[in-house]
Design goal:
Elements (H helix, E strand, L loop, with lengths): L1 H39 L2 H19 L4 H11 L3 H23 L1 E2 L2 E2 L7 E2 H17 L3 H9 L3 H19 L1 H4 L4 E2 L4 H5 L1 H27 L18 H19 L7 H13 L14 H8 L6 H20 L10 H20 L4 H10 L3 H20 L17
Antiparallel strand pairs: 1-2, 3-4
Helix pairs in contact: 1-2, 1-14, 2-6, 2-11, 2-14, 3-4, 3-17, 4-10, 4-11, 4-16, 5-15, 5-17, 6-7, 6-14, 7-12, 7-15, 16-17
């Protein structure tokens, strides 16, 4: 009997050892990131850092960048990623609107992102749509692909920081663009009618996308299926539901939804100050009371900064778990130019539009704000134009199923 069991046991141990070895770097990165956050910030920011790392893991494993989803829709007629976004928004609305209506969760006051409907939102979102196609990613896509080891997306990230900083510096040039008051659907309609309206709209959009893909391709790509939680890849639906839940967790812990790009303007402004180039405390953009408070505090105490860095760390953990962390240092000249130009556009566009695909689109719609719908209505035509500009930078127009840093 022992002669039968011994080989089986030996084989099992031989597989267990490589499994542990392969995942050890990921565990070390995760623990090191937690240790860095824990030694410098509060328990609240530590919790947000953990949420950010989980976001990075979800974004990487589900390849949940918004830009390639719109490109697949526009070029191939494939709608899986966009349908996953609809699922994500529907789940987030179900979580957000009742919580925001109550005003607090577990004693923590919460508020949504509800901003004015303005020309700045439309112009900024249109520019953002162009930029995310020629740069290779939206802001969340940029963060997770940077963490996954993409040199090109580092160029996009730095350029986005520069673009956001320039937009903050030029604030007097665009702050007076025409705008209408902010409109909250739950505020206008009431909670339950607003939930019902969102449900009808999401169902209609989902049905139209299904019909479009079936007519264009003869079959519909599924957003569900099987995956591996640790090593991926995940079906799009997993990523959609994870991001909705994690954004709600951000709302509960931070008191407001997930945001990304104001930190870009903050990083650039602080860098300009440290280099002696400018004194951003006198910029009109930073004169708003909550903004100047953020500018004057150390970066380690800024929740958005902590979460952005944690998203990158989480994506690195995911790449190590998947065995796909293999940085490439060769970036074609055209792709570099695309990353620079596109990064400037997504950074500046997000600031002018009072948000990006995360804070304006995802968190705005989840909050019941009409400005989120205006943002995507303007970003989609910009994305259409950006897809057609990609060949100028030597970039293809038809993405693969799971592109990273393309």
């Amino acid at each position: 009997m022992s002669s039968v069991l011994l080989p089986s046991t030996t084989i099992r141990h031989s597989f267990a050892r490589p499994w542990a070895v392969r995942r050890l770097p990921a565990v070390l990165v995760f623990v090191a990131a937690l240790a860095v956050i824990a030694t410098s910030v509060s328990g609240r920011l530590l919790t947000l850092g953990i949420i950010g790392m989980l976001m990075g893991i979800a974004l990487y494993h589900a390849a949940f960048g918004f830009s390639h989803g719109y490109r697949r829709l526009l070029v191939d007629g494939r709608t899986a990623h966009v349908r996953a976004q609809v699922l994500m928004l529907a789940a987030a609305v179900l979580l957000f609107l009742p919580a925001i209506a109550m005003g607090d969760v577990f004693g923590q006051p919460v508020r949504g992102f509800t901003f004015p409907l303005g020309l700045g939102v439309a112009i900024g979102a249109f520019a953002f749509g162009i930029g995310m196609q020629i740069s290779g990613g939206c802001v969340s896509g940029t963060l997770y692909t940077v963490g996954g080891g993409s040199l090109r997306m580092w160029i996009t990230l730095v350029s986005a920081v520069v673009g956001a900083t320039l937009a903050a510096f030029a604030y007097p040039l665009w702050e007076s663009l025409p705008q209408a008051p902010a409109i909250s659907l739950p505020g206008v309609l009431g909670l339950w009618p607003a939930l019902a309206l969102h449900g009808v709209v999401f169902a209609a959009i989902y049905a139209v996308l299904l019909a479009f893909e079936r007519r264009r391709n003869g079959a519909v790509e599924s957003i569900g299926g099987h995956g591996h939680w640790l090593s991926g890849p995940w079906p799009y639906a997993w990523g959609a539901l994870a991001l909705a839940g994690l954004n709600f967790a951000t709302l509960v812990v931070a008191g407001r939804p997930w945001g990304v790009t104001q930190a870009f303007a903050l990083w650039g402004s602080k860098a300009a100050e440290a280099a002696g180039i400018a004194d951003p405390v006198f910029w009109a953009f930073w004169e708003e009371p909550t903004r100047v408070e953020v500018l004057l505090r150390p970066l380690a105490t800024d929740a958005t900064t902590v979460m952005n860095l944690a998203v990158m760390a989480g994506a690195l953990v995911a790449a190590l778990l998947a065995g796909r962390f293999a940085p490439s240092w060769r970036v074609p000249a055209g792709a570099v130019l695309g990353s620079v130009a596109g990064g400037l556009l997504i950074g500046a566009g997000a600031i002018v539009a009072t948000g990006c695909n995360i804070s304006a689109f995802f968190s705005g719609i989840a909050s019941g704000s009409l400005h989120g719908w205006l943002w995507i209505a303007a970003a989609l035509p910009g994305s259409w134009l950006g897809v057609r500009l990609r060949p100028l930078f030597g970039l293809d127009g038809g993405p693969s199923r799971r592109p990273v840093g393309r």
